[in-house]
Amino acid sequence: MPSSSITELEDRLMANTYQKIPVTIVKGRGAKVWDIEGREYVDCMAGYGVALVGHCHPKVVEAIKRQAERLLSCHASLYNDVRAEFLEKLVKLTPKGLDKAFLSNSGAEAVECALKLARKFTGRKGIVAMVRSYHGKTMGALSATWESKYRAPFEPLVPGFKFVPFGRADRLREAVDEETAAVIVEPIQGESGVILPPEGYLKEVREICDEKGALLIFDEVQTGLGRTGKMWASEHWAVVPDIMCLAKAVAGGVPMGVTVARSDVMSSFKLGEHSSTFGGNPLACAAASAVLDVLVEEKLPERAVEVGGYFKQRLQELCGGLKLVREVRGLGLMLAVELRFNVIPRVIPNAASKGLLALYSGLNTVRLLPPLVIEREEVDRACEVISQVLAEEASRMRS
Ligand SMILES: Cc1ncc(COP(=O)(O)O)c(C=O)c1O
To answer: What is the pTM of this model?
Structure first.
């Protein structure tokens, strides 16, 4: 099918909710993808962080193929070998004490489960979330998401949610009370521009929750599984939550959400109080089991430190003298270039036309979430494109 027919069909038949880049991707390998005309791209979009172990990692592909020939579906009301194996591997890696999981199909679902669980365990209704947070777009997750453009058309949302500025422990202390079931935080805010917490902040968040008997939920949907250079971003600040949400990369591209919690917290769910038809299906579990193996065997969190450090340094060098750039920041391979002007709607498609896929973030930030297997030469190519695109913007602004 020619590219023009594909775009015509998707534009006509698919809900118009995505800001589309006019590129038709048909193949991926490692940190590269190819469009239907055979053009190659360095993929720093990686499906919004999904292709963490690289596109079509041979071990993940092999696990999916093997499982597809054996068993594709098995409801969680029956037992399954690959599901049990995945869970065992998962809880060996999760922060200490987080050893019981609910399996679902997306980040928003992982968050829904966390919110319900917090209410169930504490018997309280209140949830405190952060200004500029992003937790997904189902009703519960949306209620914890800050941006009014996402919320306003769908109000009334779930009651009981409050927002406080990310990084302000004093404001959190005022907001959390005896009615608060949980505080939900992304350890590094992703969608709003890769915003790192101030030093000591997450420890204080933990203390405030403990003082008030509220649970702490870390949404590691974007930051988890080595992206920031540690298996969990929360490890950078040595803080362990009561509940953690995962999705995106966990099954290497097969849909999966995971809510992992303290065993006593997860056990507050009684039979039938939460469920998912597809949750824990063997195909996703086989893929996820292979993803965890690859992360550990190939030491990908360590690679995120090494290659991420190189990428950030290159970006700092090339952006150093540019007035257009406000800041280069990030941790591991979760990087951002914040610009002084909102030219992102031009920058992202222009980068794509030059062979780099990157992400929007916040109002004026280019976000880079490449696979952790990205090679230095691919980083160099990405930097070249960013440099060209920013130079073009600078000359446009001068003229
Ligand atoms: C931190 C965070 N939480 C939750 C979500 C929602 O995940 P999904 O789109 O799979 O529902 C996202 C998606 O970008 C996210 O970044």
So the answer is: 0.98
